[in-house]
Here is the input.
Amino acid sequence: MDYILNTLENLAAQTVFASLDWKNFLMVGVACIFLYLAIKKQYEPLLLLPISFGMLLVNLYPPIMEEGGLLWYFFKLDEWAILPSLIFMGVGAMTDFGPLIANPKSFILGAAAQIGIFTAYLLAILMGFNGKAAAAISIIGGADGPTSIFLASKLGQSEYMGPIAVAAYSYMALVPIIQPPIMRLLTTKEERAIKMEQLRPVSKLEKILFPVIVTIVVVVLLPSTAPLLGMLMLGNLFRESGVVKQLQETATNAMMYIVVILLGTSVGATTSAEAFLKVDTLKIVALGLVAFAVGTAAGVLFGKLLCKMTGGKINPLIGSAGVSAVPMAARVSQKVGSEADPTNFLLMHAMGPNVAGVIGTAVAAGVFMAIYGIR
Here is the structure.
């Protein structure tokens, strides 16, 4: 009888009810909500589903994220900047830089959207975060999850990486909800209905030279951007060179999906109740929203300025695509523009600022690393 009782006690001691508290179960509930949004509502399911399942696992079984646990090894690939860099390679291999090359003014709109990042940086310092933490938090405004993870790891802000990554990917998923009200508020219906001239054809030589030249210029000025920007441009060179079709297909398909699984699950696993349920987490989420909203607004306002300077040839809506959520932000510009005029086609025009935003966010991360002496 004693043997049976001891066995039952040992089994009971091994269940989650004996080792977890209400905070863990609260996070399990949050994970289930995220799973619902990913599966039923299809909010960025490729990212949100592995993130939410990683959140579920770590709050049911915390040792999975402790040293030697499965997801601990996944997370090390984040800390070493391997997974974010590989994501950038895949993005480069999938993205056509032609609209940006054809309309260099797009660089201005991509740069304008980074104002949100530096606004949030100042606000984070005012809210009590140290400089490095403020920099890591502010990059959420670029709506770029890999860059957020990359910068947080480089600046040694592992304690905030979970909230930062979840906020960044959440805002990426919520681009179609957050951006349109800001875009409509800052533009008139007449401005939203502006039709832009067809972009000029871009030669193959231009497309090949662009990633090489951008890499040389940016890395010479900001060497710390080499892991992200270098992989972005290498992936694009795979695409545009036309001589390594197998590498392009691997970067955009098999490798990209594998990396998304590892990255998403490890990001979700940083959201243990102990690390996530803090006042600082709420501050980070709020600052990320401010950064994203200000970046969107700045892009639209600079779009309005260019609209006036060009005599109404630029639709201000494409400025909102200056955040680096590729290609979702460009699709939102198209959607809001088509509401004003169903025959308006802005997608390719918006891809220019969208690509510029990816480069701009990487450059902003490089600026922060330069400020704090990180190479």
